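The material for today's practical consists of a large collection of protein records. Read left to right, the backbone structure tokens trace the chain's path through space. An example says more than a description, so a record of this kind follows:
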Amino acid sequence: MRLWLLFPILLPATASAASPPLCALPAPATMEAADTRPASPPAERPTQGALQPPAQRATAAPIPSALAELPFVKHVAAAGSTITDLGTSHALHAFAARNGDQFMLFEVAPDGQAAVSGAPIEITPAQIQTIAAGNVTDLGLQHGLQGYFVRSGAQFQVFYATPDQQRLVPGVMWDASGKDLTRAQVAAIPGAIPTVEVGSGLTGAQAAAETPALPLMREASYGTIGPASAPHLFMLIDPQCIYSIRSFQMLQSYVASGRLQLSVIPLSVLDYEDHGQSTKSALSLLSKPADQIVAAWQAGNESGPLAPDAEDRLRANMAIAESIGLKGTPTFVWRKSDGTEGRLDGVPTDIAAMIASIGS
């Protein structure tokens, strides 16, 4: 099950100094035996094939009175999810967010500004310290919850202790703006977050500054819509990423009016959240003729037999994404009117200005 992303979770190359939302690259891996998280993060994940109009997702749902003043809950409800109050246990308030036939469980942090996407398990912090002796890293307090990074061989899991220290909640902590706080907490731990290396030992971020993206876009497998005579924009997407979908919706009128040619490059970024659905969707799109990829994504047509070279195409697209230091999806690349390269990571804050900067 997947849920529409409920709130913005990042970096414009043009109009705004604030970080626009995107579907970020993988969060930490998990220990299967201990991982009780739902299948997706606090997000309005699209149901299969649904590119719904924004108005259908923006209607705020009623909030139970006991949760009505909590910022995290208000942001979830504002996206149209139905909120069910699950009561208080071990000094944490739990609730469920449901959108269609999909739902998520959350434990709200004491300050109401964040929540962990998971449910408590009957293990105490003291017990995990004994069980995983020598393999526990203290992550410190975040929004009133003590975090622990627990390693088991090559796998690991992050836990948050309930305020009464009687339970652990395995999962990812998100704040009310949609930021993955767990990812930031474990970023300094070796091996917790994959580091992309390109060429002679450059990280993905370093490579992005030295690797022109536009020539690589032309080597990718993609689908294109819009007139060939219009300014050309490349868009790297995860088919399951709500921010990719939202950005596509914002661009549709420009394509329909002949003011933009849009090339969509399918990637797989969110497998760590949707249990492999992103890869399945990307492979399905890359199995279709180039002139049908965008229409198939828009219609949710992510079924049918896979092309023999679909996996190779996706691997090539992912290698290109790594080479340019991809932060997440959507990411936009274009040639500016002055001949320089334009790039924007995340939902455009000023889409008209971005399109105006694209050269012929």
Remarks:
- The radius of gyration is 21 Å.
- Confidence is low (pLDDT under 50) at residues 1-19, 27-59, 194-209.
- The chain has twelve helices and 18 strands.
